[in-house]
Amino acid sequence: MSDAIQNPAIQPTTIQAPAIKVSSKSMPAVGLGLWKIDQDSAADAVYEAIKVGYRHLDSAADYGNEQQVGEGIARAIADGLCSREELWVTTKLWNTYHRAEHVEAACRRSMDDLGLDYIDLYLVHFPIALRYVDFNHRYPAEWIFDHSAENPGMELDQVPLSETWGAMEQLVENGLVRQIGVCNYSAALLHDLMSYARIKPAMLQIESHPYLIQEALLRTARSYNMAVTAFSPLGSLSYVELNMAGANDTVLTDPSVLAAAQRTGATAAQVVLRWGIQRGTAVIPKTSNPQRLIENLTLTEFSLSDEEMDAISALNQNRRFNDPAQFCEAAFNTFHSIYD
After folding, report:
1. What 8-state DSSP symbol labels residue 240?
2. Where does the pLDDT of residue 10 fall: very low under 50, low under 70, confident under 90, or very high at 90 and above?
3. What does 83-130 look like in DSSP terms, one character per residue?
């Protein structure tokens, strides 16, 4: 059990994050990102987050902690902290389950692990189809197909994205999920998707922060009435320990961020998250620090001026920390690029 989240000073609160529209529904604009929260602390992290006011949880099969996340949800509901209907739970279809015959089973596995009878938002995690790995062989399936191979690596599967999307639509029609969407899609893939989708994607989830503002992609999504969620909204912080970023890559020490923090009395992290929601995206920062949990929700107590917004946006370097062209070759012995 993590000491960081066992804090008796945390009491139930009525803090509410701002909301964004996802199709006809309202989703809290600040969620708890569950990537890299280990199994030992995930249940408590989720419980404490709900206790301080979080109602939006961003999960994925690949994170390997959905059973524990479900335990935290169940305990919070049992203790009367919230109802199921008050929660917005997002999870994601992993790359190895892109074939139509595997999509529903993958969704149901996430539902079972999370202890839910429906998913609010189900996303295609990456536009990358990998060879199927049976649940009984390995779950989560990860990126490498056969770890015992002489040269283990990714094995791609020839599955059109249109086939996967058709099976995602079936999940909505069967009542398993309320909304569907995509992650890590480019503008070109969005244009293609919208040409054949019977049920239109409600959400695009992408990496976005002041070093990667992706303004053209945001405009493309909005032209199709898609909401946008920014993962890694604080930039490099999640990637330093993975050797995918350096300690000096942080945006939190930039003078424009620090100046806005000084003027508003907010922390640098709050300023960057406020920049994200003020430009219309949802943000899903990951933390199990009790004080940070509360700080990340209290973003409506101040606003940034147009000049501050422009100065922070001007930090853009088109710097992507989560890039398959980089990490797939380094970690999984397979070069695979999805961005130009």
Report:
1. G
2. very low
3. -GGG-EEEEEE-GGG-SHHHHHHHHHHHHHHHT-S-EEEEEE--S--B
DSSP per residue, 30-84? B-EE-TT--HHHHHHHHHHHHHHT--EEE--GGGS-HHHHHHHHHHHHHTTS--G
227 with 21: CB under 8 angstroms?
yes
- Tell me the average pLDDT across 276-301: 92
> Which structure tokens are listed for 275?
């920049």
The span from the CA of 179 to the CA of 226, in Å, is: 11
Over residues 167-204, the pLDDT tens digits come to 999 999 999 999 999 999 999 999 999 999 999 999 99
Tens digits of per-residue pLDDT, 139-176? 999 999 999 999 999 999 999 999 999 999 999 999 99
pTM: predicted TM-score of the whole model, two decimal places: 0.94
Alpha helices in 183-315, H assignment, sequence order:
187-196, 215-223, 255-264, 268-278, 290-297, 306-313
Q: Determine how many CB atoms are found less than 10 A away from the CB of residue 280.
A: 13
Q: d(Cα 30, Cα 277) in Å, to the nearest integer?
A: 8
- Rounded to 10 deg, the angle between the 255-264 and 268-278 helix axes is 90
Rounded distance, CA 205 to CA 182, Å?
Answer: 6
Alpha-carbon gap, residue 228 to 234, rounded angstroms? 16
Over residues 315-329, the pLDDT tens digits come to 999 999 999 999 999
Confidence of residue 236 (pLDDT cuts 50, 70, 90): confident
3 state SS of 183: strand
Catalytic annotation on 54? no
Q: Tell me the C-alpha distance between 314 and 310, whole Å.
A: 6
Average pLDDT taken over every residue of the chain: 93
Give the separation between CA 190 and CA 177, rounded to whole angstroms: 21
Q: How far apart are CA 208 and CA 122, in angstroms?
A: 20
Catalytic residue among 47, 54, 63, 185: 63
Which residue, 267, 319, 323, is CA-closest to 298?
Answer: 267
